[in-house]
Each structure stands twice: as structure tokens, then as C-alpha cells.
């Protein structure tokens, strides 16, 4: 842990040094395996490893393969939830999707029989419901709307990876089973095909670790992109999104993550992890080798080290790290 004495002399280069040291510490870790249930994802370069920190002051710090593109996958779920809250309001969203951690795998074919809705928007059942709600509200323009807002958050135009999209659509039979379960329980009001098409597309948006860090900094900055100054998300929706990322963002690892790392986060099977330090930082890692729960192995290790070094945990009692960080963000 950096000492409080280092605060007066802290410079933004501390972030660069720290990212480089984390990169070297974990570069040789080859544990985990590429996701292969979507054939295109198995074609990623397994050794790619990128780290990025974006500050609410508009600065970007990177190490390694932070500009290598990959698909956003489940990290998209946090942002589409945020958009659904803005478009349809908290109460409507809550009638369709809960905010309780499920403790189950991301692709579990499961439904909260008591609440009569999916457990939360971060697992597939909840995210497909949210996609359905966006289709209900926006019709055929739903994907363009999503892509535009994701791009506003990243501060540059993002694009769809057509090949991954097709691969997802061809092989997404589990997600089809989930969508039909949702239809049978009346939480999905559009056809499963329509909701799934948006879901497969949102997962196939191409980003880099730098983009993701910028998108995280936009959440940390109350929904406004710190570089462009343009609003990508509504303030109240951001608060609700960060809360659900904190409790549910890492699937059946969410409890461990909150305990050890303590920042709202979301992972994706493309190899990305996004963390948000509210009012301070967006942090992203990219390394496509995953653990059994579908979370990036080197990503988790990097967040552990970064969180420890910078004192990022929300309940860090000394809060020493946060004051250190606050000297670096502008
Ligand atoms: O539903 C799927 O299979 C993917 N398109 C998204 C899954 C994902 O990223 C889960 N994350 N760990």
C-alpha cells in the first residue's frame, strides 16, 4: 500500500508505473482457458493482456495490449440496464427484472419463481429481458440507440463485430431456451427472436481496454464523458447501475469480488473486466483466458493488485488510497 507521505509528490505517472508493474507481474500467468462455446471467441490471441485507467479528469493511462479490440460481451449488460432505466423508469424496470444476486452461473436457465422475474440484469435471463424492454420501447432502432450511447460513453464511434454476432446467433441455443422461459412467464413482451437479436448484437460490440476504461470513467463521472463533456447516461440510472454491478456484476464470484476488491464491476467472456471507482476512475483489463466462472484470470489478479496498491475498496477504513488517487485524476 502506498503511504500517505507519498500523497504530496504524487504525479499522474504513478498510474503508468503501477500499470506497468501489474502487467509485468501477471504477464506470465497462463492459467485459464478461452471461451469456446461461441466458436469465434476461441480465435482470440490467448496471450493478449491490456490494462487501462481513465480518470474523471479526462486522462488515460495504459499498459500492454490496451488498444487490441475484443467483444464487450456481458459488460454490455451494465450499460443496457442503465439505458432501460433512463427510457422506461426504475419502477417499470423493477417489474421485469430484480436486483438480487442469483449465486448462479451467468447462463443459468433460471427464474425467480417468487419474484416472478429474472434475478438481476447482469445474468443472461435478466439481460435478455432488458433487451426485450429496449426493443419494446425503441422498436427497430434499438440497436442503433444502444451503439450510439455506448459510443458516446467511449468517446469514439464503436462498431459491431459481425463475425462474432453471427457466431453467437448460430450457437446461442441456451439463450433461446432462456428467452422462451421469459416469454412463458410474461416478462418478455416481444418475440424471443427480437430480444435475442439485440442481445447478441450488444454482446458483439467491439471495444478495447481503453474504450472500456473511458466508458467506466463516464459512469464514474455521473454519466458524462469526461473528455467530450457530453452526457451518455442519466445520473439516477448511473447510481442504480453501479449498485447492481457491485452486488451482481461478477456472477457467482460477486460476493468474493465485493469482499476482496470492493468496486462495482462487470466481466465478459470476451476477456474484459470493467471496474468503476465512483467519482474517480474507470478501470479496464483485457486478457481472454477465463476461469471456470467465465471471469478473466489475469483480470481478477490485476484488479486485486491495483485495488490493494491504490486502496480502492469502497470500505477501506483508512481511505488512504482514495486520497492518493484524488491527487492524480485531474
Ligand atoms: O450470453 C452469452 O453467451 C454471451 N453473449 C455473453 C456472455 C458473457 O459475457 C458472460 N460473461 N462472463
Structure description:
The chain has 330 residues and is an alpha+beta fold. The protein folds into two domains: 14-70 and 207-326, Beta-lactamase, CATH 3.40.710; 74-203, DD-peptidase/beta-lactamase superfamily (Beta-lactamase). It contains 13 helices and eight strands. It has helices spanning 13-26, 75-88, 90-96, 124-138, 142-154, 162-171, 173-184, 192-203, 209-220, 235-248, 254-260, 297-310, 320-326; strands spanning 50-55, 60-64, 70-71, 159-160, 205-207, 265-267, 272-277, 281-286. The strands form two sheets. The chain has a five-stranded antiparallel beta sheet, sandwiched between helices. A three-stranded antiparallel beta sheet has the order 3-5-4. The chain is globular, with a radius of gyration of 19 Å. The site of 6-diazenyl-5-OXO-L-norleucine has 12 residues, from loops.
